[in-house]
Amino acid sequence: MNRHTLNPLIKPEMVQPSRQGYRVKGAFNPGAVEHNGEIVLLLRVAEDCIPKDGYTSVPYYTFKNGIGTPEILEKSLNDPNVTLKDSRGVVYKGQDYLYTLSHIRLARSRDGVHFAVEEKPFIYPCVPSECFGVEDARVTKIEDTYYLTYTAVSPDGWATALAVTKDFITIERKGLIFAPPNKDISIFPEKVKGKYCALHRPHNQGFGNPSIWYAESTDLLHWGNNQCLLRPRNTKWECFKIGGGPHPIKTPEGWLEIYHGKGKGDKYSLFLLLLDLSDPCKVIKRGEAPLVYPEMNYEKDGFFPNVIFSNGLVVTEDGNILLYYGACDETACLIETSITELINSF
Question: Domains in the chain, please, with CATH?
Fold first, then answer.
């Protein structure tokens, strides 16, 4: 797991705000894919509002005919209708607003290292189920179509939506495919026994901790045969929760999956999992120690300290892996490894 010497590859100051009055706080957790000789990243771009003394200013969206428009709510701190809720947002006239909202922005590169970030959002809130932002896109190519899953956040919680594209210019939204609370959906790059397969992460509220689940579908829209695949172990690395990462990689030994775990000190690390090729519900191997954990300054110090989170990778023709990840919910970085190295690490 070799961190690139130019990390972080993308920083907030390299990204243009989506509108006047907004500022970019993070460009992180990129989905990744190769398309037409380019590496395309689907960055999560988090924005807040430029502060003004004596006022609270928060971003929000209005919706009309399936189109979202970014707005700014700016109110005096002396306004009796304003309640500072917590570190995440405010309440104005009984309605919640967040200090930051996210959208998905494309970044393109010929060498996988030097990226040009597009000026406009690619996926942004367009319906009420996305009113608190869209986050953490993952991309899977099946035949000639790219399937994008992303987290849709609203007062109802976080759900997962599906969109499709063939060219990363136009996009077709398919709506929510996993109801809240559910996220971290990774779609397998081919069918298994005639069914589409996916990993997902419902949020346990009761017994147990958030775990990785498996599901199947005939159309990528309706999912069933849900089974709990993997639960957090009681270790300092993943005792709180685990969740899937990028799409699984098909190898002769099995489906190779890189997943994340949250442990003590709110630290996020990456782990390795190997699933059976013909029966992905069967775990063949599971790494005991983290593949990688926060060690570098840019992984330990930032907006949300001690976080390494990956939801995007590209496998080259010679079996090398470009693993893109977010550091501290702030920047986008790169680790280089290979299928052989990962298989041999078990």
Answer: 2-344 (2.115.10.20)
